[in-house]
């Protein structure tokens, strides 16, 4: 069965830097879908400025234009700290042995060992690490010991097992961050082209990120 992709984040707000790489990975790896999973209470950072219903609504509006992506609200339904290990456990319960692919940027992958119960993550999902075009895998020795035997040489391997492999996938770089969007809106600067127009209309209609500490 085709793997399910997972992209977690605060999505405060969702933007093309989330949507385009996720869709590229969906296509490149022939995933069944990529689930965008907004965090309720992200454990590693300060609370989001937009509310949970607002962040969910923006994600729904955004994925309507992106075939292959869909929103999964399990972290906000669950409440409590949005630990990835709990989310993957819940997906594993739902999907049985079907392959699950956790999409991560290189930065997030580098910081993985700080995540709650991180050693359990490779038991639950594959890691798809999104890199820049032209980036080549460093020698296996520079990878942490736990990662070395896990490298998948070809994307097809991700469909053959449920979890535990690491695959590096180049995606087109998008120089966009939610922080930059929030700051620009608060300063009344244009953010067109950084996020879908439907999301921008929603932000404007609901006066989100205006005159606030970003
Ligand atoms: P903030 O600026 O508030 O930190 P963000 O734009 O980085 O937000 P998050 O919601 O924290 O967005 O990110 C969710 C996931 O998307 C993370 O894994 C993050 O690395 C990834 N991501 C965010 N922006 C980009 C981008 N421009 N290109 C590729 N991946 C991105």
Question: What does it look like?
Answer:
This protein is α/β, with parallel strands linked by helices and 214 residues long. Helices cover 36% and strands 15% of the residues. It has ten helices and six strands. A six-stranded parallel β-sheet has the order 3-2-1-4-5-6, with helices on both faces. The mean pLDDT is 94. Bound molecules: adenosine-5'-triphosphate (ATP). The site of adenosine-5'-triphosphate (ATP) has 15 residues, from helix 1, strand 4 and helix 9.
Which helices and strands appear, and what pairs or packs with what?
Layout lengths: L3 E6 L6 H13 L4 E6 L13 H12 L5 E3 L2 H5 L5 H12 L4 E6 H5 L10 H4 L1 E6 L13 H4 L8 H4 L5 E5 L7 H9 L10 H9 L9
Parallel strand pairs: 1-2, 1-4, 2-3, 4-5, 5-6
User: Radius of gyration from the CA trace?
Assistant: 17 Å
Could you spell the SSE succession in H and E letters? Answer: EHEHEHHEHHEHHEHH
Report the structural category: alpha/beta
The low-pLDDT segments are: none
Count of DSSP E strands?
6
Overall geometry: globular
Strand order of the largest sheet: 3-2-1-4-5-6
Note the gap between the termini: 42 Å
Bound molecules: adenosine-5'-triphosphate
What is the tally of helical segments? 10
Largest sheet: 6 strands, parallel
The fraction of residues assigned to DSSP E strands is: 5-15%
Helix content: 25-40%
């Amino acid at each position: 069965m085709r793997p399910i992709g997972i992209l977690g984040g605060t999505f405060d707000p969702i933007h093309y830097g989330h949507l385009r790489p996720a869709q590229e990975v969906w296509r490149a790896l022939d995933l069944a879908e990529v689930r965008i999973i907004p965090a309720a209470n992200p454990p590693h950072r300060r609370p989001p400025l937009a509310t949970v219903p607002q962040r969910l609504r923006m994600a729904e509006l955004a994925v309507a234009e992106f075939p292959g992506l869909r929103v999964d609200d399990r972290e906000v339904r669950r409440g409590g700290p949005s630990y990835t290990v709990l989310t993957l456990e819940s997906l594993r319960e739902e999907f049985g042995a079907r392959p699950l692919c956790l999409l991560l940027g290189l930065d997030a992958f580098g910081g993985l060992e700080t995540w709650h119960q991180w050693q359990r993550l490779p038991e639950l999902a594959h890691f798809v690490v999104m890199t820049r075009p032209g980036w080549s895998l460093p020698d296996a020795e520079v990878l942490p010991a736990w990662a070395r035997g896990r490298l998948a040489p070809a994307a097809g391997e991700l469909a053959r097992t449920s979890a535990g492999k690491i695959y590096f996938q180049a995606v087109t770089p998008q120089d966009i961050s939610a922080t930059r969007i929030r700051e620009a809106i608060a300063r009344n600067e244009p953010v067109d082209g950084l996020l879908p127009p439907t999301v921008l209309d929603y932000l404007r209609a609901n006066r989100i990120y205006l005159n606030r500490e970003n």
